């Protein structure tokens, strides 16, 4: 059944496809898709039943849709979200929200001043196991949180790897592993534990600063005679130590170039009494440790993958849009969380470029 509320999407790439599929399932009409690539915008509109398409970004500010989804590379997020909020749209922005701390604060302020509803793409929060972990940590049997640690490992950037916008500092910013995947992990650590990150100390590793570029793909340096040599400054991996509020400590290992790790986000939260751990490649399982009782594994047989997380996120976000205000129990990530994440990512960069110095958030 079609709902009396509508969406528009800017950027018709990979993540936008998942947005469109879920919005359609929810009966939310998509009035417009905008992409600078006309072929992509047209094909997207046809495939997902979008009423209109355009290659002119300004058209997104004229749509009659209630909510606009910003699914472009990150360099465009700030201007687009700012204009959309000022023009009165509700906004869903993919992560990372933007690059600059002051810009992030401006977006959050504008969302409040204009009384608009807003969400950021930290969809991992909506895995069933993650939500159950959060309840468990807040419950009476867990004890105060003491330690939070984990990993986020992917193989996406193992050679041969596409030389896409993620390697362009102007489009993606000065970091890669931290903003692309570390942003999900730190949001999750705060979400599950309820503890805010207060300081970070980080170390970056760029596995191969120069790479061979041929036909849009990158290869190991010196492995492709006749190729162009490109220099990559952003990190393939990062090691980050965290201080959280109330004396909680933590750490994460991030890597975008670990073969065999397709999309492995793991997190373990240790309380004084219990311990809980979860990872994305077995996302329907949650493990709970109790001293002398071994491990108790909860299995959620109908809990699914990536799209299910968007289903959960969009369901609560659009319920708020329909209601006209944010329910106090809504747990989707907002521009506040997006803003905090920008501050955390920039502090990580500052630390990594200053010999791991502790940087306060
Ligand atoms: N939440 C998640 O787990 C998740 C997963 C993947 C990507 N993302 C985020 O989503 C965003 C997009 O990533 P993607 O993987 O879909 O990238 P993508 O390259 O697949 O798609 C980006 C699209 O934006 C279009 N575009 C570029 N400049 C534009 C402009 N000026 N106006 C309109 N369209 C323009 C491109 O033509 C392309 O179609 C990024 O911020 C990324 O970090 C989030």
Distance between the termini: 45 Å
User: What is the highest CATH level, the class of the largest domain?
Assistant: Alpha Beta
Give unreliable regions as ranges. Answer: none
As a percent range, the share of helical residues equals: 25-40%
Radius of gyration (CA) equals: 21 Å
Counted up, domains total 2
CATH superfamily of the largest domain: Dihydrodipicolinate Reductase, domain 2
Kindly estimate the percentage of residues that lie in beta strands according to DSSP: 25-35%
Number of DSSP helical runs: 9
Short description:
The chain is built from nine helices and 19 strands.
Please give a handful of descriptors for the protein shown.
alpha/beta; nine-stranded mixed sheet; 32% helix; Dihydrodipicolinate Reductase, domain 2; 9 helices; single chain; 361 residues; globular; Rossmann fold; 19 strands; six-stranded parallel sheet; binds nicotinamide-adenine-dinucleotide; 2 domains
Walk me through the structure:
This protein is of the alpha/beta class and 361 residues long. It has 2 domains: 7-123 and 310-331, NAD(P)-binding Rossmann-like Domain (Rossmann fold, 3-Layer(aba) Sandwich); 124-303 and 340-360, Dihydrodipicolinate Reductase, domain 2 (2-Layer Sandwich), CATH 3.30.360.10. 32% of the residues lie in helices and 27% in strands. The protein has helices at residues 14-25, 38-48, 77-86, 101-113, 128-138, 169-172, 177-193, 306-323, 335-352; strands at residues 7-10, 30-34, 52-54, 67-70, 90-93, 118-120, 145-153, 161-162, 197-205, 210-214, 217-219, 228-231, 237-244, 249-255, 264-271, 274-279, 285-290, 295-299, 359-360. Strands 18-17-16-15-7-14-13-9-19 form a 9-stranded mixed beta sheet. The structure holds nicotinamide-adenine-dinucleotide. Residues 10-16, 34-37, 40, 57, 71-74, 76, 94-95, 121, 123, 165, 180 line the site of nicotinamide-adenine-dinucleotide.
